[in-house]
Design a protein that fits this description.
The protein contains twelve helices and ten strands. The relative contact order is 0.09. By secondary structure, it is α/β, with parallel strands linked by helices. Helix 9 packs parallel to helix 10. Helices cover 45% and strands 16% of the residues. The chain starts with 15 loop residues before the first helix and ends with a helix. The mean pLDDT is 86. It has a five-stranded mixed beta sheet with strand order 4-5-6-8-10, with helices on both faces. Strands 1-3-2 form a three-stranded antiparallel beta sheet. The chain has a two-stranded parallel sheet with strand order 7-9.
Length: 285
């Protein structure tokens, strides 16, 4: 996956209006993935730009990182908001993006920051993206050091923690790349047989690898699950959900890190106590 920076990479402020247009197209609300995909189309971003990764180890794309800043500025300006479920909402249905000057948005938000002498919470949260990327990069580097069979057992554990039953690691040569199988039950009475494959490397999974996996699972399961420490190309993602083909769900390195954190598998988190002194209270004694 490319890591070189391109001169034509749009800045976060240049992506503000395309973000508004994407939300308008989506009917006023959407997930981050839905918004980003439509920004790619609206801004006519070439694959070379979309493949540029953010950071030294390339966890996530540079364009998505910049789009996070675009949404932050729009929120602080009062044009959008986001729910606890990760949905972004356009606050003014009659907004006309083409009549808005993104430079005005940036200037006014920055002026507000200066007046407060303290970065707004959203800016602090966006700054924390780097620290989140750091621990995920460190975790993925750790996963790349463990033996392949250990990674397969880790995938087995994640599936069990996710509610799968009868999860087995079956990886062996000549099995078409199938590493394991399991059963997921829905509402206690619907069940689906799932076959999974693990790919422990940094690079991106290609559409041909998705097709090969689908060929190996034909007639053996209802669904496929492809787990990687790397990423998936946009064409691989499209191939996984291609109409008329058996569906394959994808877990990339970032989602894998989130799941390990959620299930506390090899990860512990610490809450830091913040103590604040109320001097006014003492002055009134």
């Amino acid at each position: 996956m490319a890591k070189k920076k391109f001169d034509s990479m749009p800045s976060y402020d240049e992506l503000i209006i395309p973000t508004l247009k994407a939300l308008k197209y989506l009917g006023g609300s959407g997930t981050i993935d839905e918004i980003n995909e439509n920004v790619y189309r609206i801004a006519n971003l070439p694959d070379e730009i979309l493949k540029v990764l953010h950071g030294d180890n390339g966890l996530g794309s540079e364009i998505d990182y910049r789009l996070a800043w675009s949404r932050t500025y729009l929120k602080k300006f009062g044009l959008v908001e986001n729910s606890s479920r990760g949905i972004w909402i356009l606050l003014k249905a009659d907004i006309e993006p083409d009549k808005i000057d993104y430079r005005t948005i940036v200037r006014k938000v920055k002026e507000s920051v200066k007046q407060n002498n303290k970065p707004p919470e959203d800016f602090e949260a966006t700054d924390q993206v780097e620290s989140v990327v750091h621990w995920k990069e460190k975790l993925l580097d750790t996963l790349l050091q463990i033996p392949p069979d250990a990674f397969e057992r880790l995938a087995q554990r994640i599936l069990r923690e996710s509610g799968f039953v009868q999860v087995e690691v079956t990886g062996k040569s000549g099995d078409g790349g199938i590493d394991g199988k399991g059963i997921v039950k829905i509402s206690g009475f619907l069940s689906f047989h799932v076959i999974f494959q693990c790919k422990r490397y940094k690079r991106s999974v290609s559409p041909s690898e998705v097709r090969d996996f689908r060929g190996a699972m034909q007639g053996r399961a209802d669904k496929g699950l492809l787990i990687t420490t790397g990423t998936f190309t946009r064409d691989a993602i499209k191939e996984a959900t291609r109409d008329g083909a058996p569906p394959i769900d994808l877990i990339d390195g970032e989602l894998l890190c989130d799941k390990l954190k959620e299930f506390k598998l090899g990860i512990s988190t610490e809450l830091i106590e913040h103590i604040q002194i109320n001097a006014d209270w003492f002055s009134q004694l």
